[in-house]
Amino acid sequence: MSEILRVGIAGLGTVGAAVTRLLQRQTEALTARTGRRIVVTAACVKDQSKQRDADLSNIEFYADPVALASSEKIDLFVELIGGSEGPARASVETALAHGKSVVTANKALLAAHGLHLTQLAEENHAALAFEASVAGGIPIVKTLREGLAGNSVLRVYGILNGTCNYILSRMEREQLSFETCLSEAQKLGYAEADPTFDIGGFDTAHKLSILTSLAFGTRISPEAIDIEGIERVTLADIEAAEDLGFRIKLLGVAQRTAEGIEQRVHPTMVSKNSAIAQVMGVLNAVTIDGDAVHELTLVGPGAGGDATASAVVADIADIAKGVRTAPFGLPSSQLKELKRMPMRRHEGGYYIRLSVRDVAGAFARIASRMAERKISLESIMQRGRRGSPGDCVDVILITHATSEHLVREALELIFEDGTIVARAQVIRIERE
Amino acid sequence: MSEILRVGIAGLGTVGAAVTRLLQRQTEALTARTGRRIVVTAACVKDQSKQRDADLSNIEFYADPVALASSEKIDLFVELIGGSEGPARASVETALAHGKSVVTANKALLAAHGLHLTQLAEENHAALAFEASVAGGIPIVKTLREGLAGNSVLRVYGILNGTCNYILSRMEREQLSFETCLSEAQKLGYAEADPTFDIGGFDTAHKLSILTSLAFGTRISPEAIDIEGIERVTLADIEAAEDLGFRIKLLGVAQRTAEGIEQRVHPTMVSKNSAIAQVMGVLNAVTIDGDAVHELTLVGPGAGGDATASAVVADIADIAKGVRTAPFGLPSSQLKELKRMPMRRHEGGYYIRLSVRDVAGAFARIASRMAERKISLESIMQRGRRGSPGDCVDVILITHATSEHLVREALELIFEDGTIVARAQVIRIERE
C-alpha cells in the first residue's frame, strides 16, 4: 500500500464539491485515522469553467469519466454522476475491471446492477462501497453489514425519501393539501419539477432494495417491490390518523415471512409514539428489528451535500485503511435468490376510509361484509357531518391483523353493494 | 489465519450465555460473513454446575480467567467479568500480552485503563474491541470510529443509563415521586439494591468517557467529567418542564469548546420535540453533532443479554474478518491529552426553580440580581399557589445562554438577600 491514496471524483456537483472540501479539510485527521494521506488528484466534470466551492488547484481534469476510471493516476474512483446506465455504469465497471476501488452514492445503479458490480469487484479484488446511496449521512449500510453482523434481521423499515416526509409533515402540521405542499417543496428545491420519482415511491424503492439485500443476504431485487406513492394521501386521512393515534409516513419495509421476503413501499400508519413517527421534515430514519438487538433506530439527514459527503468519506477511509468487506455483507456467490412474498398475502392491520352515502344502514352492511371475510375490526367510526340528506360522509375502519386479499375482497363486495360512492382509501398499519 | 476462530469467554452470566447462544445460532451466517468458523471452545465460570441457557457440551472450563486468557487453545478472549481491577484487568492484560484479541463489555475497565490497554494491544498486534461497553446494542462505537470518520465532531450526547431513564420516564408519565419510581425499578430488577452507581451518574460517566475519546481523539479522561445524578429531580421539576415544553433526561454530554473539551453528566432539560426526548423507559440513545453529518441519533436497547451480545458478536465478526482498527480510532500515540473545560465556564441556558417566601417583591429582586450578572431571562413565572400568607411558592426562571459561574453568583446573592428559603434547583438546558 502506497502512502498516498489518490482519489478521482466523477461529478463535482453539490455532493462532489462537498466530498472534495471535506477530504481537504480533514486531511490531517484522516491521515491519522487511516495511516494514509487521501488526496483528490483528479476529477471529471462537464463544465470545467464553472465556479465550485472547493479548492481545485491541484486537480487534473478529465472530460470522460471512463478515462478517469481507468487512469493510472488514481487508486480509488468516486462515482457521483447518477443514473443506472450511461457514463455512471460504464465508468464504475471500468474502474472495477482495472482493480480500482469504487465509492458511489448511486442507488439507481446499485438497484439495477448491484449483483453484477459486486461480482466484478470480487473478481478484481477491488472494494465497492455505497454508504451514501441510502439515507444520506446515516451509516445504515455499515450498521446492517457490520454493526448487526450477529443478528438475524426480521424486518427493516424506514423513511428513505426526504421530499415525501417533508410533504407529509407539512400537510399534518399546517393542515394543507398534498398539492399545496408539493408545490411548496418544489419552490424550496426539495422536490423536482417532475416529482414522480420521489412522490411515486420509486426513490424509496431503490434504497429499500439495497437495505433488503444487506439485511437478508439476498440478491438485490428491486423488481420484487410493491410500490405505492403518496399522491392519494389526503388531509382527511392525515386528520383521521391524528385522531386515531397514528401518523402517516411513506415507508419502505422489508420483512422476513414464512413464505418469503416482503418488500413494499407505501404510505403507512405508524403509532404516534413510535421513534419513526417523530421524524419530521426532510430527515430520514431507519429501524431494524433483529433477533438479538430487538429494535434499533437511526435518524439523520437523508440528503444534502455535506451529509452525503460524510458517508462517501467514511467509505473512502475504510478503503484507505485496507478494510475489505463484501459489499452486501456476504460473498456474491452466497447471496440467495429472493423469494418474493406477494402483496396480496401481506398480513397486517388496515386503515380504511370509505365515502358512504346512507350512513344509517351503512355501518351494518360494512361490518357484515368484513365479518364474512373474517376481518376483525378494532373500530368503525363516522367522521365529519352530513350537511343535507344526500351528502356523503367518511366512515373509517381500523382492522386487526388480517390478510390483504381478504381486505380487497371485502371492499369489492362493499362497492358492489352500492354502500360506497368512490374507491376506498386503504393505508396499511405498521406496528413497532 | 486459521479457518476456525476459537473463542474463550470469561463470565457466563446473562451476557456471556447470550453471546454463546448467539454464536451457536448464527454459526453458518457468521461463517459466510467472515470466512471463518467462530467456535466457543472455552469458558471461565465461578460455578461450573450452575444451569445456563446455552449449549456448553463442547466447551472446556477454566477456573481462572488469567489461565483462560493465556491458553493456547483460544484465539480471542471475551471478557465479561466486570470491574476495573482484579481478574477482569488481569485477564485482559494477559490476553493482549499473549497477542490474543480481546472483546469486552467492560466500561469501568476501559474508563480506568483504556489508554494503557490500547498501547498493550498495539504492542502485541492484537485487536481490542468494546462496542458493548457503551449503550448496549447500539453500534455507537463503530459509528463514531468509522461511520463518521470524515467528521469533526462538535458534540456527542446521550441517554446512556436505562435505570435513570426508566425512573425519569415513570415519574413523568405516572406523576410519581423519585423515591417511588426508584423502589419500583429495584423491584423490577432495573436498579441495584445500592443504586448509587446508576442514579448518581457514575455509570453514564464511564460510558461518556469512552464516547469522548472516540469523538474527539483524546485520551480517555473520566476524572475530567463533572457528574450530577438524578436524586434531586422532583416531580415539581418534571411538571414545570412539561409546561415549558421540555422533558428531563439524564444526559452525558461531551462538547468541543474554544477552551477545551467539556464532559458532563447531569439531569438536563431537552426540548419535548427533540429526538432524544422521545426516548422513554430503559432505552438508550446517542446524538452526534458532526460538522459534515450535522445531527445523527441512534436509539436502541442499552442493556439486556441479547442486545449486549449483539454488540459483542459484531466485534468478534470484525476480528474474524481480519479487520484491525485502532480501538479509539487513532493510534494511541496520536490521542491527545484532553484539555478540560471547567464546568463554571459552561455556557448554556438554565432552568432555575426557587422556593420564594414573599412573592410580591420577589420577582423584582430576583430579576435585578440576574440583570446585575447580565443574565438575560427568557421567562420568570410563579407556579402553584400559596395557601396562607406565610407559605412558599415556586418561582421558575428560564435563562437565555449565559455562563454557569454567573448563574452561581446570582443565586448566591439571591440567597443572601433572603429572597429564597432553600437551595435553588438548577437544571441545565441542552439545545439541539
CA distance, first residue to last residue of chain A: 46 Å
Q: Approximately what portion of the residues of chain A adopt beta-strand conformation?
A: 25-35%
Separate helix tally of chain A: 14
Name of the CATH first level of the largest domain in chain A = Alpha Beta
Q: What percent of the residues of chain A sit in helical stretches (DSSP H or I)?
A: 25-40%
CATH superfamily of the largest domain in chain A: Dihydrodipicolinate Reductase, domain 2
Q: Structural class, judged by helices and strands of chain A? A: alpha/beta
Main interface by residue count: A-B, 59 and 59 residues
Oligomer type: homodimer
Per CATH, the architecture of the largest domain in chain A is 2-Layer Sandwich
Question: Could you give a short account of the major beta sheet of chain A?
Answer: 11 strands, mixed
Computed over alpha carbons, the radius of gyration of chain A is 24 Å
Poorly predicted segments of chain A: none
If you average the pLDDT of chain A, what whole number results? 94
Shape of chain A: elongated
Total domain modules of chain A: 3
Task: Report on the architecture of this protein.
Chain A is an alpha/beta fold. Chain A folds into 3 domains: about 5-135, Rossmann fold (3-Layer(aba) Sandwich), CATH 3.40.50.720; about 140-300, Dihydrodipicolinate Reductase, domain 2 (2-Layer Sandwich); about 345-430, Alpha-Beta Plaits. In chain A, about 35% of the residues lie in helices and about 25% in strands. In chain A, strands 7, 8, 9, 10, 11, 12, 13, 14, 15, 16 and 17 form an 11-stranded mixed sheet that branches. In chain A, helix 5 links the parallel strand 5 and strand 6. At the A-B interface, helix 1, helix 2, helix 6, strand 12 and helix 12 of A face helix 1, helix 2, helix 6, strand 12 and helix 12 of B.
